[in-house]
Each structure stands twice: as C-alpha cells, then as structure tokens.
Amino acid sequence: MNALAALAVVLLGAAWLVFVAAVCAMRPDAARDGLAQMGANWRMQLGEHVPRAVVGAALILRAAHSKAPMLFEVGGWFILASSILILLLPMRWHHAYAVWWADRIPLSVYRLFALPTAAAGAMLAYAAL
Predict the structure, then answer these.
(1) What is the pLDDT of residue 3?
(2) Per residue in 6-50, pLDDT tens?
C-alpha cells in the first residue's frame, strides 16, 4: 500500500514537472512571475516546499520498486532535506534568491528549459513504474 501511494505521489510530481514545462514553453512571462513569487509569503513558501518534501519522501519510499533505486533514494533525500532546510531559513532569503534569478533569466531561456523539464517529468514517471 505504501509503495502504491508513493507511486501516485511520484507520478503527481512528474505531472507537475510536465505542467511547469508547458507553462515555460507557452507563457514564459507567467513562469518568470511564478519564480519571482517563490518565498514571497508563507502561503507560497509552504505551497512550494510541503508538496516538494512529500514528493521527496515518496521517492525514498518508491526507490526499491523503481527502475533507478539509488537515484530515487539519493534524489529523494536531497529533495526532502533541502525543502526542510529552506523552510527553516529566513523566508526573505529564499524570496530574494528567487527574485534575483527571475530578474536575470531571459524569457527565451524559459522556453529553452521547457523541453528538458518535460523530459525529466517523463523520465521520472517511467522510472517510477
């Protein structure tokens, strides 16, 4: 049961990556605005890092049943630990970092990153099955 629930969460995480890729490809201005909002308030902070931590935990739980067990376990621990760390640091640091990147990444680069982001989502889903 845990493995099945973990699979569902990992697949939702993969679908989220594909959605983000679509936004980057079709609405790079919205992707930039979304990036600039990361850490802007507690709702954004928790909305980003709680689901991210849950996906990290799901990767760890799904690792043994995946096509890439070591990658899932190491990646899952990294995602989980980094989400917890970011939640513990001052939120203004996270927001300032997000704004710094949003101001420097050209809109054309969002479109460029859409393809590898979608591919990562597809590969994550494939490896989880």
Answers:
(1) 87
(2) 999 999 999 999 999 999 999 999 999 999 999 999 999 999 999
Query: Among 13, 11, 19, which Cα is nearest to 118's?
Result: 19
Given a contact cutoff of 8 angstroms between Cβ atoms, the answer to whether 52 and 79 are in contact is yes
Q: Are 61 and 2 in contact (CB under 8 A)?
A: yes
Comparing CA positions, the residue from 57, 83, 53, 72 lying closest to residue 5 is 57
Neighbours of 6 (CB within 10 A): 25
Domain ranges for the chain, please list them. 2-128
> What's the token pair of residue 2?
């845990």
What angle, rounded to 10 degrees, do the helices at 28-37 and 107-128 form? 80
Query: Hey, CA dihedral for 102, 116, 76, 12, is it positive or negative?
Result: positive
| Each residue's pLDDT tens digit, 105-114 | 999 999 999 9
